[in-house]
Amino acid sequence: MSLKESELILNDDGSIYHLNLKPQQLAHTVITVGDPERVAAVSRYFDSIEIQVSKREFHTHTGIYKGKRITVISTGIGTDNIDIVFNELDALVNVDFQTRTIKKDLTTLDIIRIGTTGAVQPSIPVDSFLLSQRAIGFDSLLHWYDHDLEDQKMAQDLAKKLKLSKNVATPYLVNCNKELASQFQSIDMTNGTTITNVGFYGPQSRSIRLQPAHKDLNELMANYEFDGHKVSNLEMETAGIYAMSTMLGHRAVSLNAVLANRATGTFSTSPTQTVDRLIKFSLDAIASF
Ligand SMILES: O=P(O)(O)O[C@H]1O[C@H](CO)[C@@H](O)[C@H]1O
Ligand SMILES: O=c1cc[nH]c(=O)[nH]1
User: Fold this and answer.
1) Which of the listed CATH numbers 3.20.20.70, 1.10.510.10, 3.40.50.1580, 3.30.420.10 matches domain 23-287?
2) Which end of the chain is less crowded, N or C, counting CB atoms within 10 A of the terminal residue's CB?
3) With b meaning 16 or more CB within 10 Å and e meaning fewer, what string describes 135-153?
4) Distance from the CA of 73 to the center of ligand 1, in angstroms?
5) How far is the centre of ligand 1, averaged over its atoms, from the C-alpha of 256 (Å)?
6) From atom 4 of ligand 1, which residue's Cα is the shortest distance away?
7) Which residues sit with their C-beta closer than 6 Å to ligand 1?
8) What's the ipTM?
9) Terminal CA-to-CA distance of the chain, rounded, Å?
10) Residues 227-255: pLDDT tens digits?
11) Pocket test for ligand 2, best of 38, 114, 200, 221 (most atoms within 8 A of CB)
12) How many CB atoms lie within 10 A of CB 42?
């Protein structure tokens, strides 16, 4: 059945609605970053750049790094953007834009997030790297899809222990792709459980003038343990990325540069250099598989 014009929206030049990309412009290895300016910070290491496209906060460069074709794309902040980016990335490889039908043979993308984060454990130093083995989404993205993701025990237990208000979404648990994650262990890397939330201030229990509803959230998280797993860090996309990738059949892993430590109240004095180290490490790891 052909997808209607209101569902699969194509621009006049045949590119997909928000990302402005055509199928041939997307590599099968995709790096996602939040910050549009981080796209060039990644692609400056490419040996050649084949295309540069941008629309809104979605900037894309596709090129070659050490023989591997890679696309780097910015998602902007938040899982609302992840919904758009991941549906459109998937459509670029798995929908025939001419016939507007889903292809019989589906393509699996490798998706690597290079992002930034705040640690909740005092033992995780700023300027270190963290791989999200699993993520617990405090956003509600997964709940808007018909899915069969099981094993929600840790998410349900965490919601109880944090005494989350009934007004917030039910947390959901999603995992990285283990095989892909194993390619990024050749460096000192904390493997953790990431909380993805819908904001940077109140939802991460930060207060400038407004008081968060859950004041002791980070301390309760830091002291929480389930089946040997502790909460390691807070950010704003990983659970959405793992949820969308799992449902769509792509492999995803989220790599984080730890810029803040919420337990010690510290922030990196060299955030650009730390993110740059993570970019170089990730590119070399990607080129080697
Ligand atoms: O540095 P990025 O990749 O944007 O990731 C983190 O930084 C942003 C907040 O400053 C949020 O998007 C959070 O997830
Ligand atoms: O504390 C932090 C740092 C980076 N990104 C976040 O979402 N939180």
Assistant:
1) 3.40.50.1580
2) N
3) bbbbbebbeeeeeeeeebe
4) 14
5) 9
6) 34
7) 33-35, 77, 115-116, 200, 235-237
8) 0.99
9) 37
10) 999 999 999 999 999 999 999 999 999 99
11) 200
12) 24
Q: Output the six-digit token pair for 196.
A: 């993805």
Residues 56-84 have a mean pLDDT of 98
CB 88 within 8 A of CB 19: yes
CA distance 261 to 269: 12
Burial class (CB in 10 A: 0-12, 13-18, 19+), 35: middle
Distance from the alpha carbon of residue 64 to the mean position of ligand 2, in angstroms: 30
Protein residues whose CB sits closer than 6 Å to any atom of ligand 2: 116-118, 200, 204, 234-236, 259-260
- Which of 130, 139, 200, 238 is the pocket-test mutation for ligand 1 (most atoms within 8 Å of CB)? 200
What's the alpha-carbon Rg for the chain, to the nearest Å?
19
List, for residues 132-164, the tens digit of each pLDDT value. Answer: 999 999 999 999 999 999 889 999 999 999 999
For 117-126, write each residue's pLDDT tens digit.
999 999 999 9
Atom of ligand 1 nearest to the CA of 77: 12
How does pLDDT run across 206-215, given as a tens digit for each residue? 999 999 999 8
Residue nearest to atom 4 of ligand 2 (CA): 117
> What does the domain layout of the chain look like in residue ranges?
23-287
